[in-house]
Amino acid sequence: MSPSQWITLGIVIALALSLVFVVHWLLNHQLGRVWPMARHLVSRSAVTAYLAAAVVGANLALPSPADVGWTTYQAIQHLMRILMIGTLTGLGISLAYAATDMILDRLSVSNGDADRRARRYQTQVRLLRRVVTSVIVVLAIAAILFTFPQVQALGAGLLASAGVIGIVAGVAAQSTLANLFAGLQLAFSDSLRIGDVVVVEGEWGRVEELSLVNVTIKIWDERRLVVPVANFTITSFENWTKQGTAITAKVVLPLDWEVPVAELREEAGRLITASPNWDGRSWSCQVVDITEAGDVMVRVVATAADTGAQWNIACEIREHLIAWLVQHYPESLPRNRTEFFSSGEESPYAAQFPTSAFRRGRSSQEPAAAPRNGATGPPGGDPGEV
């Protein structure tokens, strides 16, 4: 190429880049005030628009075959065709992302967990644009490959055996396709949404990202749990915000038999009804069980508007009731009782339960003697008693 041709090429590319700069300036300073999508277009196409403009400008200023020779011209033309496909594909994807960004802004979670419909559409839009982008990229790569004559000849043979190739590809990409369809199933069945509070593999967290391959869960301690999408369709998981954000806080206190349940219930009610984390629906304080170890299980329940309030009110109940019991009823705290009797003492329960199980010289939990039919009974046992 002659120096004049290089100068012409540089001028055309500079004009194309200047045109993109002017368009971006107008979108930022003029149209951006009245058109919300303008800033998304500028941010998304900040690189791809300039690359596409440079390639288009270079393609317009290509030299003729007489200037560089037919072989060189074919090589340059082939290279420019590949660059055109790649840059225009990138520009198209960035423009599509800009359009969906505007939709996602409108669907942004403005009401927290309560905005379930917005979070559902947000999840579907994010997943669909990933699917569409993947398809476009695959088609672009195929178009680039078919610019080579060798691949075109191979493609005719591949089309004849498309059935076999399809089976082989399906087997090879089985896990990828399973994740793809699992992601679509989760998004459009409303089983999982971005922002949902879930419990997966014993970890509590919030769905941060739902892609074609994995689901990223932000755990409460800032860790990230990455789970394959297909796992959510074959294993069970807890979704705390599927139907709404209302949830119930539960606090279980193992206490002693001497706990004053009525006073404890009154104090729990006073605390819950005064707490800003209680949503005003319901609360209760009940003895729900007695363990084999002798602990009285008292359960305090209070409803909350969302998971954050649920955690806070549960901690409030636990901390306040522990301090209240320690201060006013320390005998209610859980304890283990052990009672010893010497051989000359009588069990205090013997008068209440006049049976052979409570005899002098035997503890209240010692079983009665067995008949002496060849076996040796405990000392002092009566062979005639059972």
From TrEMBL:
<protein>
    <submittedName>
        <fullName>Small-conductance mechanosensitive channel</fullName>
    </submittedName>
</protein>
<feature type="compositionally biased region" description="Gly residues">
    <location>
        <begin position="377"/>
        <end position="386"/>
    </location>
</feature>
<dbReference type="Pfam" id="PF00924">
    <property type="entry name" value="MS_channel_2nd"/>
</dbReference>
<dbReference type="InterPro" id="IPR010920">
    <property type="entry name" value="LSM_dom_sf"/>
</dbReference>
<feature type="transmembrane region" description="Helical">
    <location>
        <begin position="6"/>
        <end position="27"/>
    </location>
</feature>
<keyword id="KW-1133">Transmembrane helix</keyword>
<feature type="transmembrane region" description="Helical">
    <location>
        <begin position="127"/>
        <end position="148"/>
    </location>
</feature>
<dbReference type="GO" id="GO:0016020">
    <property type="term" value="C:membrane"/>
</dbReference>
<keyword id="KW-0812">Transmembrane</keyword>
<dbReference type="InterPro" id="IPR006685">
    <property type="entry name" value="MscS_channel_2nd"/>
</dbReference>
<dbReference type="InterPro" id="IPR023408">
    <property type="entry name" value="MscS_beta-dom_sf"/>
</dbReference>
<feature type="transmembrane region" description="Helical">
    <location>
        <begin position="47"/>
        <end position="66"/>
    </location>
</feature>
<feature type="region of interest" description="Disordered">
    <location>
        <begin position="340"/>
        <end position="386"/>
    </location>
</feature>
<dbReference type="GO" id="GO:0055085">
    <property type="term" value="P:transmembrane transport"/>
</dbReference>
<feature type="domain" description="Mechanosensitive ion channel MscS">
    <location>
        <begin position="176"/>
        <end position="242"/>
    </location>
</feature>
<feature type="transmembrane region" description="Helical">
    <location>
        <begin position="154"/>
        <end position="173"/>
    </location>
</feature>
<feature type="transmembrane region" description="Helical">
    <location>
        <begin position="78"/>
        <end position="98"/>
    </location>
</feature>
<keyword id="KW-0472">Membrane</keyword>
